[in-house]
Amino acid sequence: METLSDLRRFALDSVRLILTGNRLYYAWVGFLLLLLALGAAAYTAQLREGLIVTNMRDPVSWGFYIGNFTFLVGIAAAAIMLVIPAYIYHWKPIKEITILGEMLAISALIMCLGFVLVDLGRPDRFWHIIPFVGLLNFPQSLLAWDTLVLNAYLLLNWSVVTYLLYCAYTEKAYARRIVEPLVLLSIPMAVSIHTVTAFLYNGLAARPFWNSSILAPKFLASAFCSGPAILLILLQILRRTTPLEIKDEALHKIAELMAYTMGFNLFLTGAEVFKEFYSGTEHLIFTRYLYFGLEGHRTLVPFAWASILCGLAAFTLFLIPRTRKNWITLNLGCVLIYASVYIEKGMGLIIPGLTPDTLGELYFYRPSWTEIFVASGVFAIGFLAFTLMLKVAIPIILGEFTQKKGMART
Amino acid sequence: MTAGAVLLLAALALGPATVAGAPKEDFRVPPPPLTEGIFPCSECHASMEVDRRRRDLTDMHDDIVLKHDEEHRWCLDCHAPDDRDRLRLAGGQLIGFSESYLLCGQCHGDKLRDWKVGVHGKRTGSWNGPKQYLLCAHCHDPHAPRFKPMKPEPPPVRPGQAVRPGEADHE
Amino acid sequence: MSDAPRRPPFPEECGGSPSRRRFLAGAAAAVGAAILTACKGGSIEEFLQRQFHQLSPAEVEVLIARLEREHMEKFGSSVRVGNEPPIPGIEFGYALDLSRCIGCRRCVYACVRENNQSRDPQIHWIRVLEMEKERGVNIHHADPYYDHDLVPAEGHFYMPVQCHQCKNPPCVKVCPVRATWQEPDGITVVDYNWCIGCRYCMAACPYGARHFNWGEPTLPAGELNPETHLLGNRPRPKGVVEKCTFCIQRVRKGLYPACVEACPTGTRKFGNLLDPESEVRYVLEHKRVYIFKEDLNTQPRFFYYYGA
Question: Within an 8 Å CB–CB cutoff, is residue C39 touching chain A?
Answer without folding.
Answer: yes
